Automatic annotation (TrEMBL):
Enzyme class: oxidoreductase
Species whose genome carries this gene: Kolteria novifilia
Name assigned to this protein: 4-hydroxy-tetrahydrodipicolinate reductase
Main location: cytoplasm
Chain's gene name: dapB
Compartment(s) of residence: Cytoplasm
Amino acid sequence: MSVVRVGVHGACGRMGRRVVAAVHAHPDVALAAALESSHSKELGNDIGEVCGLGDVGVQVSAEMPKDLDAVIDFSVPEASLALAERCAEQGTALLVATTGFSAEDRERLMTYAERIPLMVAANCSLVVNVLMKLAADTAKIFRGRDFDAEIIERHHRYKVDAPSGTALKLAEIVEEGMGLTERVYGREGITGERPRNQLGVHALRTGDNVGEHTVVFSTLGETLELVHKGSSRDSYVSGAVAAAAYLAGKAPGEYGMADVLGF
Ligand SMILES: NC(=O)C1=CN([C@@H]2O[C@H](COP(=O)(O)OP(=O)(O)OC[C@H]3O[C@@H](n4cnc5c(N)ncnc54)[C@H](OP(=O)(O)O)[C@@H]3O)[C@@H](O)[C@H]2O)C=CC1
Ligand SMILES: O=C(O)C1=N[C@H](C(=O)O)C[C@H](O)C1
């Protein structure tokens, strides 16, 4: 098997630095680019030095090389869109793990699946993807019955988008499964009784929380909660590297973490 040449976009960020380290350590994947914005103070520095790995021979750059097999993106939405255009021009597979897209930008992003192998995954963790499947199955069972559904997410104080991309994906899943037609983000004031077709979504921002998601299903007399608690970013990292290796060399199209994880 030939080594997959991977670029990391947003390489100096919280996730990017960890992905760089994982790619560098992986036997079947090679770190071929460390991409940042043209304003980054790290431009020209060795990414290994930035990440505390020592010299790895790859400089932080705003220019994407032409010979990459796949790019892993953990950056900001506008940069992900510009990256998708570059990947499409060069025929490079792309994993967008960034969150916070507007509905319009997300729609635009998905059009690149006509030109390249593309995965847009709000959460690359195996266990979170199992949570999504459990939420889908549970929501279908409760459809048409007397159940309320709410989603609660917790993240670190530095996170810039709310609710999390994962919470929004879970919201879509639960709405589709239960046939809910109204979504509310938080509640305040004299709200009146809870409408029966409503899904509530709630975001907490505290400390260094790496990500927790709870889907609450309640009827009168009992409650079921599906809970995922992350305690390290490693699960996102390993899923992202597996996704990039999976996408490399695939036909253009839209792929998902379920394809990578085999369920
Ligand atoms: N799918 C998943 O499993 C996960 C997704 N995420 C998502 O990943 C994203 C990044 O998270 P995190 O690493 O914590 O955030 P950070 O802010 O730590 O990292 C973002 C990085 O992107 C860089 N960046 C900004 N603009 C550009 C640009 N134009 N071109 C290239 N790089 C750019 C930033 O550089 P600078 O600092 O110089 O602006 C920074 O290094 C978020 O949207 C988050 O929600 C996070 C964890 C898991
Ligand atoms: O910003 C984060 O940290 C995370 N973001 C993703 C999201 O918005 O869902 C995934 C994970 O929860 C961590």
